[in-house]
Amino acid sequence: MSRDRQSFYLKRIVMGDLATNCYLLGCLKTNEAAVIDPAEESEILLDLIDEKGFQLNYIINTHGHGDHIGGNKQLKEKYSAKLLIHQLDEGMLINPQKNFSFYMEKPIQSPAPDDYLRDGMCLNLGLHRLYIIHTPGHSPGSVSIRLNHIIFTGDTLFKEGIGRTDLPGGSQPVLMHSIKEKLLGLDSSSEILPGHGPASTLKHELEYNPWL
Length: 212
Known about the structure:
Elements: E1 2-4, E2 8-15, E3 20-27, E4 32-36, H1 43-51, E5 55-60, H2 72-78, E6 82-86, H3 90-93, E7 115-117, E8 122-125, E9 128-134, E10 143-147, E11 150-154, E12 157-158, E13 161-162, H4 172-183, E14 191-194, E15 200-201, H5 202-208
Parallel strand pairs: 4-5, 5-6, 6-7, 11-14
Antiparallel strand pairs: 1-2, 2-3, 3-4, 8-9, 9-10, 10-11, 12-13, 14-15
């Protein structure tokens, strides 16, 4: 998935053994950019940022699990971008046991965050605005991100599915509350771009998601 709009660029790069969706966002008027969920070190991502002439302002983790944070260190070493995560998931970044990468082949220790994501927070990205929505349940600090009519849902909401809640810190009642109270009330035409799998829309999920 790649889109060049009049003033906005969006590219999905599928990364790692768990096929995590990493997203590169860029304002084509100012060249300011953000990366959401860099799952692993990726020369493809670095080359794309440089090829587009982007200035990377933000590295955003929708939550702290290892399959969403593996590229943080590489990006921080190359760019002067701010690493952002919700405070409730901060402890996962530097602890491979808490982020579950300890059980994978490559334990991950991310740099510490530069700032915290907060519910209702707005991040300026050139001419565009990224609105942070705290959507706990998959993890205590899980967030979704709204950009116009696009919602990056991390591992909270998938096409015809929801995030797993059997890992430490997960809660299905909390997850369902997040989805119903924080996401389903948004414009039904909004596109959902999840942390894994294909895109969807809120309208599709309201009609076909068996969990809803």
